[in-house]
Amino acid sequence: MMASYWETARTGFTAFVGIGLLVLAPLMLLHYLRFGRVEPRRAFVLYGLLAYGLVALALIFLPFPADRSQVCQGEQMLSLVPFQWVTDMTNNMAANGRSGIVAMVTSQAFMQQMFNVALFVPLGIVLRKAYRRGPLAVVAIGMGISLAVEVVQYTGNFGYYPCPYRISDVDDLISNTAGALVGWMLAPAALVVPTVPDSRDATAPTGTVTVPRRLLALVVDLLPVIVLAKLVLPADPIWAVAVLAALRVVLPAATGGTTLGSWLLRYRTRRLDGSRANPAQVVLRELLGVTGLVAYATVVSPWLGAGRFDLVVVALVVIGTFVFPVFRRDQRGWHEHAARTRGVLDLDRVVVRHEPTREEVEGAPAAG
């Protein structure tokens, strides 16, 4: 019995791996468009729910009958007697001459009901811990989902099979609902499940310089370097690095944190307090960012000849500059944390709609 469950669960998890990869990019894009960032706790909970849902569906519906014509066998496929499993368990124990607690908990009827309870425990945990739902809501949601499953089973998967191939049982409805309630009670101990923040706490602050804006600015800064390297500059790559450093280091140090790309995208690099960044901060920011990576790739890497180390350097810079900020509200990368700088929108040219923070809303005097 357990071996068949494990095999079915593995099928569900395999489906999650495939479907999860397909929805990863759309999910991240949806989060970024909605919140201005990818909120990691929301993404973790959604992915966890996807994995749990697919495994649960596999355990509930698989295996499908191989021959549709053999489904209708004249058996009773609907049980409306509550706690019929207790009677079945007692009769089975009596027929086999067994008694006692050990016989009871090892009987197939008892284990089936405990499986149905355990199947919905994760749902109750997530609903309370992640989404702050109360016991009545958890019971209602658990009962609703279980009822939907029983309806699908009784209709032969909405008519795909001429008859139900699994029994629709009121005891399953009771057990599943109880499992959701048990999950609600166990939720405080589920340390691995995070609390999903509300929309206001998940959204990037108004005026944040986003990663796509920085990427577009970087492309604008790189275009002149590429054109000059192809048409004007000597073949030695150090000249291209010098031009890039002039555009990404010298120019912002002289103009208060503005490059050609950031000027077109209407932001500039500043200190954390919004004041002008000093040249040392600009140099450190670019040394640990894209300019440093380009210099390493074109000048240092060929001299070192360390292939695996090159992969580590590229991964660290790309993750720290473009991946890590996506999950942060302030969108700052590792290089900006080290330099203690941040991107600031040019408010003289950008109209930013102010949205009140939670503190401003809670601190506002009551009307009237």
Compute the number of strand runs.
4
State the helix count: 17
Task: Please state the structural category.
Answer: mainly alpha
Which blocks of ≥5 consecutive residues have pLDDT under 50? 350-355
Gross geometry: elongated
Instruction: Please bin the fraction of helical residues.
Output: 55-70%
Major sheet: arrangement of strands = 1-2
Q: Give the tally of structural domains.
A: 2
Search tags:
mainly alpha; about 375 residues; two-stranded antiparallel ribbon
Please describe the topology of this protein.
Layout (H helix, E strand, L loop, with lengths): L1 H34 L4 H22 L16 E2 L4 H12 L5 H5 L2 H22 L5 H20 L1 H4 L8 E2 H17 L12 H4 L8 H21 L5 H19 L4 H5 L2 E5 L7 H9 L2 H15 L2 H17 L10 H6 L1 E5 L12 H6 L5
Parallel strand pairs: 1-2
Antiparallel strand pairs: 3-4
What can you tell me about this protein's structure?
This protein is mainly alpha-helical and 368 residues long. It folds into 2 domains: 2-63 and 76-202, no CATH class; 211-352, no CATH class. It has 17 helices and 4 strands. Strands 1-2 form a two-stranded parallel ribbon. Strands 3-4 form a two-stranded antiparallel ribbon. The protein starts with a helix and ends in a 5-residue tail after the last helix.
What's a concise summary of this model?
65% of the residues lie in helices and 4% in strands. It has helices at 2-35, 40-61, 84-95, 101-105, 108-129, 135-154, 156-159, 170-186, 199-202, 211-231, 237-255, 260-264, 279-287, 290-304, 307-323, 334-339, 358-363; strands spanning 78-79, 168-169, 267-271, 341-345.
